[in-house]
Amino acid sequence: MFGKELNIQEYLSIGYLYLVILGVLSDSLFYGILGFPIIDYMSILDALISPVNLLTRDYRITLPIVIMFTLLYLYTTKWAPMLHESLRDKRWYRKMTNIERADKRIELLKDRKNLFWSVLFMYALLFLSIRLGMALGTKNGLVEKSENPNYSLTFKDDSVLDIRKLGQNSTYIFYLDRGETTVVATPILDNIKKIKKIEKDRND
Description:
Blueprint: H1 8-33, H2 44-57, H3 59-87, H4 91-96, H5 99-110, H6 112-140, H7 142-146, E1 151-155, E2 160-168, E3 172-177, E4 183-187, E5 192-197
Antiparallel strand pairs: 1-2, 1-5, 2-3, 3-4
Helix pairs in contact: 1-2, 1-6, 3-5, 3-6
């Protein structure tokens, strides 16, 4: 698979498997740091859409990733080859650089197959780093966050519970009860009638 031209079906299969693995790893990392076994509460579909969901729900995450990959693409396809070509005949550059090896590296950068795998690796590294940062930030502020609910759950029996929502998938909602630091998983189907975001002024 490496080093050969892939067809559309192979790209789709790799993309599917990649998103599932990335979803499992990122959610396991995030909730694992919070002491919660998320793997027992997620399906293949949940793992598949988890990376996409995280990117689309918060522009503060989406924007840096888009900028980084735009710069990466420009560097590998434009800037690095252009810079190398303009400097390769300079005496000081030849003293500092093995030109033959540099030429080979530039050719590898120009190869779209290598770029594809590089993008997958860089995206996974960045995505997992973001999830790690989110998990550590959440863990460090668990008590404060639990005292400031951001969602209200209305159950089928019309009872209402204000919670600090941490996440949600197709089956469960994950949250902190007020004043608690233990992650709770509650089924959504046939259990919760309404999930409502609490306006900020209600937390003041």
